[in-house]
Design brief:
Distance between the termini: 15 Å
Structural class: mainly beta
Strand order of the largest sheet: 1-28-29-30-31
Helix content: under 10%
Largest sheet: 5 strands, mixed
Number of strands: 34
Length: 424
């Protein structure tokens, strides 16, 4: 009875951030779930360790920071070091994991990536960082300029494309966004910057729009967010120095907001309360709340509020009702009013943070870079509920947590865990 009452009370908060698709209790189809809002409608485990409440722990070949996506099975990507004909490189792979046993159901190569100019990478990144998108019997996987593909849930590759090329700096990171028949992809390299949409049925490029900027640091790693506002379907695509909204069907630029020296943008935009929330990356490091119903350059007219302290460079914020929560890279959590920007509280957590938070049953899950997850009440006063640690010393955890039924999937740099807490 208590859980049912909580879900009914929480539904209005979910509806403010999800405008066309319904969230089911069984699916987690993309980065941070349906519409990437990070909400789960069932309680999740609150207590675990390396030796307690672990249903299974499975070694994942290679390395990757893509988060698991879930329906009837678990899907993720990885890059396996390989050498062919004396050339070193990486086998870029899609992997299916059985949710009951943790065993690999299939593990298929999607692309072969030889070493060279296109594989420059940061020590915190991987060659398989973008999270797949799961729709029906298809999984869309993306490896930055090394290729985008569609793989069936049976492990058979349906199409591949390598048309969206650019020179990355620090590797690849942003995932595609799926809407209607289009996969929208940010392509922000050190040489050129543009946004493209490919047909989800065959991988053909439908439109490609160059960024209307000339940044000194053009590289960014942001995932687009698709919204409907002002009677238009808009692809919100942050980049170095500015965020742009593009018409979903044509790629025509609708509006932009400039933010100076912001670059290497990672956090995905959010949409709630009629506002788009954008983190501007490194450099000035702001959080902007933007009214998306303008046209042209709306920098001076449509920014409703902004904040310049405690803004994450890597982690995507999360909105619960009227509250926005964010954790910066150094571990400072800020809770503020999403409508006004007024701060409710700040508190420091242990460690450094790259993964994004999720929320379930009124509890926020913040996972740091060394396997510690801190649970915090999703309220206007700070309340720590618990801490849980997995992994060996030195093992990193940059992938975001994914729910599966009443459990949690946690990926570190060597293994995938399924965590189940019978006590809760």
């Amino acid at each position: 009875m208590r859980r049912t009452k909580w879900i009914l009370l929480f539904l209005p908060a979910l509806l403010t951030v999800s405008h066309t698709r319904w969230i089911t209790a069984a699916d987690w189809p993309e980065f941070r779930g349906e519409r990437s809002i990070g909400h789960w409608l069932r309680p999740l485990p609150r207590s675990w360790s390396e030796t307690e409440n672990v249903t299974w722990k499975t070694a994942i070949p290679g390395s990757g920071w893509s988060s698991p996506v879930v329906r009837d099975a678990i899907y993720l990507t990885s890059a396996v070091d390989d050498e062919r004909d004396g050339v070193s490189g990486h086998s870029l792979r899609a992997i299916c994991v059985d949710p009951k046993s943790g065993e690999l159901s299939w593990n298929v190569e999607v692309f072969w990536q030889p070493e060279g100019d296109l594989v420059e990478i940061h020590k915190k990144n991987s060659h398989a960082s973008p999270t797949p998108i799961l729709e029906g019997d298809r999984i869309y996987v993306h490896f930055g300029p090394h290729g985008t593909a569609c793989v069936g849930t049976d492990g058979i590759v349906k199409w591949r494309t390598q048309e969206l090329t650019y020179l990355p700096l620090h590797g690849n990171g942003g995932s595609p966004a799926l809407e209607d028949d289009l996969l929208v992809i940010n392509c922000d390299g050190r040489d050129i910057q543009y946004v493209a949409a490919v047909n989800k049925k065959n991988g053909e490029v439908v439109w490609r729009t160059s960024r209307d900027t000339d940044p000194s640091r053009g590289f960014s790693f942001c995932t687009p967010t698709i919204i409907e506002a002002g009677g238009r379907k808009q692809a919100i695509c942050p980049a170095s120095t500015a965020v742009f909204a593009y018409d979903l069907s044509t790629g025509r630029q609708l509006w932009r907001v400039d933010y100076g020296e912001g670059y290497s943008v990672v956090p995905r935009p959010l949409f709630a309360h009629g506002l788009v929330y954008v983190c501007t990356g490194f450099g000035d490091g702001q959080l902007l709340a933007i009214d998306p119903e303008g046209s042209g350059n709306v920098t001076s007219s449509h920014v409703r509020w902004s904040m310049g302290k405690g803004v994450p460079k890597s982690s995507t914020p999360i909105i619960v009702g009227d509250l926005l929560f964010m954790v910066d890279d150094a571990g400072i959590v800020t809770c503020l009013n999403a409508k006004t920007g007024e701060i409710a509280w700040k508190n420091r957590l242990k460690g450094k943070y790259s993964a994004s938070p999720i929320v379930a049953d009124g509890v926020l899950y913040f996972q740091n870079e060394t396997g510690l997850t801190t649970l915090v009440a999703a309220g206007d006063e700070f309340q720590k509920i618990g801490e849980n640690q997995v992994g060996a010393d030195g093992e990193r955890t940059f992938a975001t947590l994914s729910p599966i039924e009443d459990d949690i999937l946690l990926r570190n740099e060597t293994h995938l865990y399924r965590i189940h807490d019978q006590v809760r």
